[in-house]
Amino acid sequence: MIRLALTTGEPAGIGPEISLRAAEIFLQENPDVEINLIGDKSLFAKNLHDRLTVQHTPLRANVVPGQLDRANASYVLNTLDQAIEGCLNGHYQAMVTAPVQKSVISESGIKFSGHTEYLAEKCGVSLVVMMLCGKPVFKSDLLPEMLRVALATTHIPLHDVSSHLSIDLLQKTIEIIGKDLKDRFGINQPTIYVSGLNPHAGESGHMGREEIDVIVPAIELMRQKGYVLVGPLAGDTMFSPNHLQKADVILAMYHDQGLAPFKFATFGEGVNVTLGLPIIRTSVDHGTALNLAGKNIADVTSMLAALQMATLMARNQSGTSGS
Ligand SMILES: NC(=O)c1ccc[n+]([C@@H]2O[C@H](COP(=O)([O-])OP(=O)(O)OC[C@H]3O[C@@H](n4cnc5c(N)ncnc54)[C@H](O)[C@@H]3O)[C@@H](O)[C@H]2O)c1
Ligand SMILES: N[C@H](C(=O)O)[C@H](O)COP(=O)(O)O
């Protein structure tokens, strides 16, 4: 039996309702899975599937759908802490996260920029990599079945991206991608297409030097170690079908460089995976959608995909993928 922790996210957003709906659907199709919803029991229906349980975590303030309350920020982090601890001690085989509202957690006085960074800190890992995977929603022979986009930097202001990029960061990021694609996704020696940072990948240094000073040296060092790398490629044409068909994963230098084209092609179907952790963590590709909260109309496709991917990764890890 695979046991999953499902953190139900910002209580004023769509997290609780999509978690419950998706879990009920997913369990009907996966008889070897149990799901533990982590959140306040008042947010969920009373008659649950027999393999669906609630790990009750009390809210700090009453919830009005769509209205953020910073008093519940510590509640949200408490749900994450329980899932992380349960994964680290082996109680859960993987954790899946519903969306949280980063701003309200920060406004409560707790420094928080995302699950990705929080998980790295709580698991004692100095670097993790955010990767989104998804099937394109446009059906075309020109597009691959699955797009994967990893990021060299995550939730930082655009003006800090250049100073964050270093040869060391890119080398370690490529190492994590190579290891996790092999260990967790069964892709030996993935072909990684690496983007530049500047327009036209710096135009031979006339439009920025990060390619020459940082990205090319990192690529060359990692090629010497046997990694299959193509780049640096101009960001504007990196997502052309010709490249997408040959790349196992695209490594973008910053959040919107990679995720804007990714979400254009896959929104609502994608899964966010944190690479480099000692535990398995997947998430949806969308946010709290406060405008839809409480209406029970939000799409659960991405949550179903996140549950599916966490289950597959857990089965691979326990060596039961063929069963
Ligand atoms: N995994 C996460 O925790 C996660 C992921 C992305 C964004 N966020 C956070 O969510 C908050 C809101 O972000 P945003 O407004 O940029 O993005 P959003 O994804 O919440 O909303 C963007 C648009 O997509 C729609 N949408 C989102 N999810 C949907 C669903 N399941 N079904 C139908 N429509 C859906 C929304 O109604 C809105 O129109 C921010 O605080 C952001 O940081 C969290
Ligand atoms: N960058 C993610 C996205 O755009 O989908 C999202 O903000 C969630 O990030 P975390 O998993 O770090 O919370």
Automatic annotation (TrEMBL):
InterPro entries: PdxA, PdxA_fam. Gene3D superfamilies: Isopropylmalate Dehydrogenase. It is found in: Cytoplasm. Binds 1 divalent metal cation per subunit. Can use ions such as Zn(2+), Mg(2+) or Co(2+). Its EC number is 1.1.1.262. Substrate binds at residues 115-116, 263, 272, 281. Homodimer. Catalyzes the NAD(P)-dependent oxidation of 4-(phosphooxy)-L-threonine (HTP) into 2-amino-3-oxo-4-(phosphooxy)butyric acid which spontaneously decarboxylates to form 3-amino-2-oxopropyl phosphate (AHAP). This is 4-hydroxythreonine-4-phosphate dehydrogenase. It comes from Polynucleobacter victoriensis. The gene is pdxA.
